[in-house]
TrEMBL record:
<protein>
    <submittedName>
        <fullName>Ribosomal protection-like ABC-F family protein</fullName>
    </submittedName>
</protein>
<dbReference type="InterPro" id="IPR003593">
    <property type="entry name" value="AAA+_ATPase"/>
</dbReference>
<dbReference type="InterPro" id="IPR017871">
    <property type="entry name" value="ABC_transporter-like_CS"/>
</dbReference>
<dbReference type="InterPro" id="IPR003439">
    <property type="entry name" value="ABC_transporter-like_ATP-bd"/>
</dbReference>
<dbReference type="InterPro" id="IPR027417">
    <property type="entry name" value="P-loop_NTPase"/>
</dbReference>
<feature type="domain" description="ABC transporter">
    <location>
        <begin position="4"/>
        <end position="255"/>
    </location>
</feature>
<keyword id="KW-0547">Nucleotide-binding</keyword>
<dbReference type="InterPro" id="IPR051309">
    <property type="entry name" value="ABCF_ATPase"/>
</dbReference>
<feature type="domain" description="ABC transporter">
    <location>
        <begin position="343"/>
        <end position="555"/>
    </location>
</feature>
<dbReference type="Pfam" id="PF00005">
    <property type="entry name" value="ABC_tran"/>
</dbReference>
<keyword id="KW-0067">ATP-binding</keyword>
Amino acid sequence: MLIVKADGVAKEWNGKQIFANAHIEISQGEHIALLGRNGTGKTTFIQALLGKTSIDRGSIQRMLPIEEWGCMEQHLHVGEETTLLEFVYAGMPELSRIKNEMSILEKQLGQQDADFESYNRLYEQYMNLDGYTWEVRVETYLQKVNLAADLWHLPFNSLSGGQKTRAQLARLAALEPKLLILDEPTNHLDSETMDWLENWIKHYAGAVLIVSHDRYFLDRVAHAIYELAPEGTKRYKGGYTAYRLQKDAEERALAAQYEREERERRKLKEIITQYRNWFQQSHNAASERDPFQKKKATKHVTRFKAKEKALEKLLENRTEKPKETAQVKLSFQESHFEANSLVRVEELSFSYGKEPLFQQLSFYVQKQERIAVIGPNGAGKTTLLKLLVGDLMPAAGSVIHHPELKIGYFAQELGKLDVNQTILESILDIPDMTQTNARTLLGCFLFQREDVEKRIGDLSMGERCRVAFVKLYFSGANLLVLDEPTNYLDIETREVIEQALESYPGTSIIVSHDRYLLQKLATRVLCINGEETRVFPGTYEEFWNTRLGVSSEQTDAINQIQKLELELAVLAVQEEPETEDMQKELIARMRFLHEELARLKEALQ
């Protein structure tokens, strides 16, 4: 059953086109992700689907009333006195209204003028609407998203960002809409709530539309991805990794097609030039008394005119030159820092008030390591970074730095940006930085041409994060301490940051909720969780597999299954082969993949 369909949708803002020719179809049970760079209009497109924003062209068909949709929003307007529980109850306005009216009348039941008739009428309505079952559902979901009962009667606006996100999830889960729209649902969530959310969406019977920069999350919940760009949308089968493989294959095919057309264009121009020259020679040699030369000249005219038409047709249908994907190509001078040990943490203890965060924590930081610091919200990850860089002093124990250690701390760098400087001026503050090198580097980090002249004070948080990262990266530090470096960044920018950190010759310590980034980068994991705080001597993926009780053999099999499924997804959506032999080869490959997947899955059971 089709729930919503948008066709040829276009939207302008202050005379500037945000996107055009956008299409989307969502059917019952489909879990769809909407992907695109910051500023491409993802939230605007969702608002158009919800009927909250008008469109300039195109059409939107809603086969399901908007009242049966559920939407998680980025910006909430909640009354100052509204409690967390009241906010969640308000997801069902009619039941919430009846419940509130009943509560008022209940307080009057012991009085002489008590309105028993109104109370009984409301009670009957509440029962008919299954209100008490709904209350149990609300409380169940509040517990599932780790919002304990002692928080329920606190003002909603006093909650942390993560608690507000979890309250929205509980409200929507209790509502059980047939179409669920989630705009950045993983923001501020700890790993436990993320696991719950992923499992809940995976088993959700209704349709889901998700906007998220969390690639790990998209891999686990998305059946298909729509990429939104200024020129329109395109649908890809599977989660983020499958989308990325398909995009890479498309880009390679486009590049090959462009090169073929370029060769054909050059060849046609050479032939046209040659035929022109031959015509000119024959024409000059021809006379009224020499019909042979005249006929020869006419023949050359016909030939080069035909080739000119072929060239014109080629140029009319020409493949657009593929845009170069930003690649961070960096070179570093040989480091003179020879020591293997950069930092030693010995018997470290720290607390806020009576609540201890760390007790007798010990670990070391070695040269060229990439350490992921993970743990639930409030466990003390940021506090630990501040202790490592010297912004806080431990209650007991010590943090010992190598004498030649130079630390670059992302949170500090972000705060030190001069809002009155332009991006270019800020980067030129880096020692020995030239105009040419600065513009090249900024181009690598997705600041193009006139962008570099923007004032820091006029930038979005995502743009400021990029500037701060570039300054930190080239600061000469041999230890980068990064607290959520990819917050506010879209996926394309996150991947640029990943490339930079992969090629960084120093050591890095990273606090991040971006599991895709940690999986790609981390060589060691420091898990902070009260008494369970420990150092794991392996990658992020190995850490989680150990916690889940997955053996190395099972991990290898799971990884192989994922690779084969991704290959199968790419083969399933590629264009039909041109020749019969190629078709047979494709069918044989797909049959092999299905058989191999069945064998591996059976072995895992």
